[in-house]
Design goal:
Number of domains: 1
Structural class: alpha/beta
Strand order of the largest sheet: 1-11-6-3-2
Radius of gyration: 23 Å
Number of helices: 6
Shape: elongated
Helix content: 25-40%
CATH superfamily: NagB/RpiA/CoA transferase-like
Distance between the termini: 77 Å
Length: 216
Amino acid sequence: MKESTDREKVLKAVRKALIHKSEVDYSAADSDPDIYTVPEEDSLELLFAKNFATLGGSFIFCEKKEDFAAQLAPLIVEKNWNNLFTVDKEIQDMLKADNIHYLSEEKDFLDANIGITFCECLVARTGTIMVSSKQKSGRRLPVYANVHITVAYTSQLVYNLKDAFKLVKKKYDGIPSQLTAVTGPSQTADIEKTLVKGAHGPKEIFLFLIDDTQIG
């Protein structure tokens, strides 16, 4: 009986609350405070690199644009990579500068082993890469290839997800139909508690961050 009585008390309190609504004015409440702040000893670049590496990503810093292809070339040899695919003309131009072969035609998409794309922004606090369907690479390339290489600029770094959403919303005057937060390589242990990499996307993720503070 006690459980039933207690239950009735709770239900009675809920009914009373619905009938007699609070008259407290919350209109001046601040619902948009910064809960987290950037640690004083860390720059956004360093904070992102730390968190990205902790999640299993590989971070490469480039002091200038030309360093991207120069640092990618030996990695291609070391990893024995082939069938690099990108549709971004700026990335294609950087690859051409070091005579790095790439695929870009639709007919070659299914052969892509390494997908190279830009991103919308980088979220330092969570080590997250934000990509969207509005990008030239579209919805498929960031998740199709075994390895995803992202090229980004230091000016694209933001601190948290709230800042990322604001940036994307301002850029497109609204949120794209698909906005994806890539936080580390794809992996799952849902099946028999066995860790499987690449189950829902790339097995490896590389981020080449180009310092554009001196550009222009």
